[in-house]
Amino acid sequence: MSQKIVVGYDGSDSAKAALAFAVDQAKTQGSSIVVAHILEWSPYSFLTPTELEERHKRRGEELDRAEVAILAPAVDGLKDSGLAIDTALKYGNIATTLGDIAKESGADQIVIGRNGEPGLSSRVFGSVAISLAQSAPVPVTIVP
Amino acid sequence: MTNLIKAAAVAAPAVLAASAPAAAQSLDETINQGFASATGWFVSFIFSPFPGTTFPWIVMWLVIAATVFTLYFAFIQFRAFPHAISLVKGDYSDPNDAGEVSHFQALATALSGTVGLGNIAGVAVAIGIGGPGATFWMILAGLMGMASKFTECTLGVKYRNEYDDGTVSGGPMYYMTKGFQERGIPAGGILAVMFSIFCILGALGGGNMFQANQAHAQIANVVGDYPGWITGLIFAAIVFLVIVGGLKSIAKVTEKVVPFMGVLYVLTALVILIMNADMIMWAFGQIFEGAFTGLGVAGGMVGALIQGFKRAAFSNEAGVGSAAIAHSAVRTKEPITEGFVSLLEPFIDTVVICTMTALVIIITGQLVADPNTGLYLLDEGASTIQTVDGNKGVALTSAAFSSAIPFFKYILAVAVILFAFSTMISWSYYGLKAWTFLFGEGQTKELIFKVIFCIFVVIGASANLGPVIDFSDAAIFAMAVVNIVALYLLMPVVKGELDSYLSRLKSGEIKKHS
């Protein structure tokens, strides 16, 4: 049985909980894990001329920082788990991009953590968990 | 932050104005006279007419260029229009490139540099002199200008410099040097230097003084008259904080608010047009009739045509080369795609937004016509059309909008200030690129330019509209003189890119990602 689980991971406590949950499940099922980090990005935001000029450079810096500060420690922590670990690092809308990663990697489940209280901002703008529940191509597990 | 600027810009002058008006007016006048005499020769040269006519050679130069590009690329502005929209929507963007500058972002930033006072004040100036007929020529020039913009932006991306740290520098000075060298054409370096000098002047003129001048006129229109140097100092201080102090927050807020202001402006104009729906056909009648007869304006049909062409060029900057600087930051494997996207710019700027302003001014009856002959009446100097309240420039637009929606003049005042500000930030960047091309990059060198830029904000706000607008036009058109020479010489390069791209698009090699 070879399954694959995509874990949405941003280094927060709830993301760590989600990863731990996914690892437990993977061990019992013999699955592999994709640790995915999404850098929130909209191609429709507005930038100043100077920001345009520096965008490519900043993108490189942001990717490096995410790799070193978020993904590397997570992978390190799973070294002894014996599981096959992969990473994914992308720009985009968090929910849609997680869905895309699941589709591309042929995963059969997405696991994410839940970010705290359902406050005003998530009522207005929606939350990743809700968007994912509506749009994900595979089953989604939300870890509290 | 925006509220802060608004409050500071509106409140402070009102307080200061009461205290020392007499001394300040004379300072304004000194600056004004000095400025007019210092720049007069340059303006006369750029706008000198063909011998024996009143037709400025520079206007002909731009129109011929736009026509040549339109024909050479077989009406690319209409053929590629739907594809340009697909590109902006991101249909052809590789998802793996997310996080890089998108076509939409490059277009939005370039637009925020061009959409602004040209659309609000410039159109009013054009209609005030050339009558409704100027609108026809303005729209025509806008449609043709799309081909010029397509040509220059494709070249801007193709020949930009990419540095090791990932930043890019592009624009006419780079395609003049690298493009000419590649094709074995001499004198690219000289053209590039000339362009850079004119670009710096254009940045200080149309990209700065005209903006400061009209922003002041707008504020004075709302809070009452007061000396221009006060507005100038406040604007200069804010611009200084942003471009020298690196205070990104102000620029960020402005860049985000400006597009909404643009949309709000167009929507308001639409509401006014719908309120007067029965007059729209009449307005278009005035526009067509005026285009070919002048309806009594100074210079008749030619007068209307010159005003229309001039304002279109000043508003959308097609052929000027400034957009090539803004668009060159996009990360794309196909330079031509940025050309496609950029051809939307004159369309949005001139064909849509400028036309809205013109229609509102015409429909709300700001221009005074003789009820018997239907011809427009001229002011004493016989150069401008009489308006209901004697308004000119931005005040005319403001009066037109307020006559339908009274509180709109406050919204317009805020919009003008923000447009002026965002245009200044964009042009400070264009000017800086030209400056560093001439003198090399380096903190001190860049600082010198930025300080000069801020000083010109004060001068612009203090001078009268006439000399400032003349100099602004002259400097920006001078850029076009040099840029268009380069575009003629390099247009086969664009043709090659276009043919290759279109054939790959047809064969399915280039396909949509989503």
From TrEMBL, chain A:
UniProt domain UspA: residue ranges: 1-144
Superkingdom per UniProt: Bacteria
Signal peptide: none
Pfam entry (one): Usp
Residue intervals passing through the bilayer: none
InterPro entries: Rossmann-like_a/b/a_fold, Universal_stress_UspA, UspA
Family: Belongs to the universal stress protein A family.
Protein name: Universal stress protein/MSMEI_3859
From TrEMBL, chain B:
GO annotation, cellular component aspect: plasma membrane
Membrane topology: Multi-pass membrane protein
InterPro entries: Na/Ala_symport
Signal peptide annotation: 1-22
A Pfam family the protein falls into: Na_Ala_symp
Keywords linked to the UniProt accession: Cell inner membrane, Cell membrane, Membrane, Signal, Symport, Transmembrane, Transmembrane helix, Transport
Main location: membrane
Transmembrane annotation, as ranges: 57-78, 120-140, 185-206, 226-245, 257-277, 283-306, 347-369, 407-427, 447-469, 475-494
Gene3D superfamilies noted in UniProt: Amino acid/polyamine transporter I
Family note: Belongs to the alanine or glycine:cation symporter (AGCS) (TC 2.A.25) family.
Protein name as it appears in the record: Amino-acid carrier protein AlsT
Designated gene of the protein: alsT
